[in-house]
Amino acid sequence: MATGTGLQVITLPAELIQFEKALEFIRTIVESAACPHEIEQAIEVAVEEIFVNIARYAYPETEPGEVRIGCKVDQTLNHSRLIIAFADQGKPYNPLEHPDPDITVPIEEREIGGLGILMVKRIMDKVQYEYTHGWNRLVIMKSW
Predict the structure, then answer these.
(1) What predicted TM-score, i.e. pTM, was given to this entire model?
(2) How far apart are CA 104 and CA 115, in angstroms?
(3) Residue with more model confidence, 6 or 40
(4) What confidence score (pLDDT) does residue 121 get?
(5) I need a surface site. Which of 1, 54, 57, 130 has the fewest CB within 10 A?
(6) What is the CATH number of the domain that holds 88?
(7) Cβ contacts of residue 53 below 8 Å, gap of 6+?
(8) What does the DSSP 8-state code read for residue 15?
């Protein structure tokens, strides 16, 4: 029989100063699910990358918006899976449609950008994006 925490949601202003509140929200859920420390740290890195990108780039500076974060853990006897969904009404942007940066090229010769989402894709088990009805929705999943 599967159990888990129901979906919990927080809505915050899409501002860098709100990152700690977002992280504390995620930590509370992750810690209640007995997540191993090294996986929790990896999740925090991914959450930071995504939240910071929304805060910096989703909305014009003169019109700050909000970010909704939904989080839940599904658990079975041998397996747990964390699902985190980030939603904003900023400009449409699918970070998954851009090619991964070539990390074999010397750093001074690389194009700017792309390393953060590459890191998220490598840390998490699954990353999905959709844009519907004026909402960007990026979902990340991690199992342990």
Answers:
(1) 0.88
(2) 12
(3) 40
(4) 95
(5) 1
(6) 3.30.565.10
(7) 95, 116, 117
(8) -
CA distances from 5 to 2, 11, 41, 100, 136 (A): 11, 18, 20, 34, 24
Residue with tokens 């859920």: 29
CA dist 30 and 73 (Å) reads 8
Q: What is the pLDDT, as a whole number, of residue 1?
A: 45
Domain containing 102 equals 3-143
Q: State the Cα–Cα distance between residues 67 and 90, nearest whole angstrom.
A: 9
CA–CA dist 63, 139 (Å, integer):
24
Taking only the tens place, the pLDDT of each residue in 73-88 is 999 888 999 999 999 9
Q: Which residues neighbour 45 within 8 Å (Cβ) at sequence distance 6 or greater?
A: 119, 123
User: 43 pLDDT exceeds 90?
Assistant: yes
Give the side-chain half-sphere CA count within 13 A for 77.
Answer: 1
Identify the DSSP state of 5. P
Q: CA-based angle 14:72:74, to the nearest 5?
A: 155
